[in-house]
Amino acid sequence: MPPGPSPVFRVALRGGSLLTNPRWNKGTAFTNEERKAFGLTGRLPHRVNTLDDQCDRAYDQLQAHENDLRKNTFLQSMKDQNWVLYYSLISRHLKELMPIIYTPTEADAIANYSHLFRRSEGLYLTFPHEDTMEEDFLEQTRGRDIDLVVCSDAEAILGIGDQGGIGIASAKSTVYTLLAGMDPSNTLSVTLDVGTNNEDLLKDHLYVGWPHERIRGEDYDRFIDKFVQLVRKYFPHSLLHFEDFGVTNAYRLLERYRKHHSVFNDDVQGTGAVTLACIMSAVGVTKSRLVDQRIVVYGAGSAGLGITRQVRDGMVTIDNVSAEEANKRFYLLDKHGLVKQSLGASNIRGDLHEFVRPDDEWSDVEANPNGEITLLQVVKKVQPTVLIGCSTQGGAFTEEIVREMAKHVDRPIILPLSNPSKLHEVKPQDANDWTDGKALLATGSPFPPCKQPGGKEYIVAECNNALIYPGLGFGAVLAQSRTLTDTMIVAGTRRLAALSPALKDPDDALLPDFGDAPEVNLEVAIAVAEQAIEEGSAGVDWKKEEVREKAEAFQWKPIYGTYVYDTDGEQA
């Protein structure tokens, strides 16, 4: 890690090898002294540029690209050439460029991964090569101090189904660096290629993944376990981040490994944590308690269930109630309607059993011919204070549903969280209009402010995982925690909620502005590490009072250091 604002590095690379290494390349920012020392004088144009100059030039070049996907490709190329310039440029235009390198544009890049492929960008572990997994793993990681491993089996990438490639794992790693200061040289992006069930990909002769039906059952579990054990064996203090695993595996794998390693699933825990922070902020506005809420979750997949469990855990920790008591505050709906007893075991996933509603509650509600209770019926009976959408069904929160909710609640909390924006359950402006400007809103993608009566504007909070998951992971890595516990996550969530603008002005956003995400994630990380120390799960011998200083010193910053040529110095 750079020890300060002007670090000195001893580097063994020279000439073209230095200019093609993205970790060490400075391009035109190499000083005249460095150019002489590293054999670069004849390889670069005369003028020495500052990092500011380079960012100005790169931003101008970026604007010349006419659509977001081309901008994404341009930035990916820059990342392949010069890490400092890439991260510095995005940091300077964070709100503008985050949607380009992350959701929603990254979804298009991933969907077209095989056709856009130019060069590899991580570790590709494929089921047919299971026998050489350890060899392949060590080839990529030997001599490196890995703090963060982001892996995906690609089954549930961004709601678009099976996709080949490593794009989402790489994008998540990038966000850890941008928003939490994780050193990119100490991160590893991994795709666990176990096949695909996407027929279009299987028929595509340009598909770069393994063209085979997705592996399931014992073979799948053995393959995943072999990978996890390699991470545990060689990098015991690293954070293992699971990303976009399918609903049948996401929670199951998290539960299997979380007691043995510091494991995190963003879809289950990250989405849940930022939503919990959002609800805590809204509860602060309404002057109520978390445990007093009546919460309807429309969409009971991995994200919806993750939100439910995280908010439940928040009730248990913050309001000191039992998990069984907190479970009663939730009403989950999936493709079969309300999750209730009479749906039967065949229609209720095993991981939903804690939240199954008893049939006698609904004896006065007439189900449809399939025995299903609809969202409108649930809203009429439950009179929820919180309505959460994770269904990817655009327009599911109709005017009738929203107006029905608003009849019974002074400040309805409405969170249409599905991505991308075309899949949102309700447009924020519509929800605002249908509740006469009383709704407390947050969405999964950025939206413009809502026009209010009298000309005022209501800022719609972006309930973006990136406001919290980099800090949660950074806090665990910083503390060298053996596990990432529920209480550590709740500690980070409470810190995020405490930063809510709505706590100062009830008509302001429920979450901090995304432009403040780096500062916000630092605060989250500090809270997580402090909690790890307090509860004894940390692997460091620090006092809580030391955490902030340690965190700030640990962060990687996109700045150029001074290079000294040394044949025994850094190379990769």
TrEMBL record:
Enumerate the cofactors the protein uses: Mg(2+); Mn(2+)
**Domain Malic enzyme N-terminal per the UniProt entry, residue ranges:** 79-258
What are the protein's GO molecular function terms?
A: malate dehydrogenase (decarboxylating) (NAD+) activity; metal ion binding; NAD binding
Keyword annotations = Metal-binding, NAD, Oxidoreductase
Kindly indicate where the leader peptide sits in this chain: none
Family listed: Belongs to the malic enzymes family.
For this protein, the record's PANTHER family field holds:
MALIC ENZYME-RELATED (PTHR23406), NAD-DEPENDENT MALIC ENZYME, MITOCHONDRIAL (PTHR23406:SF34)
Its name, as the record gives it, is Malic enzyme
In which organism is this protein found? Cristinia sonorae
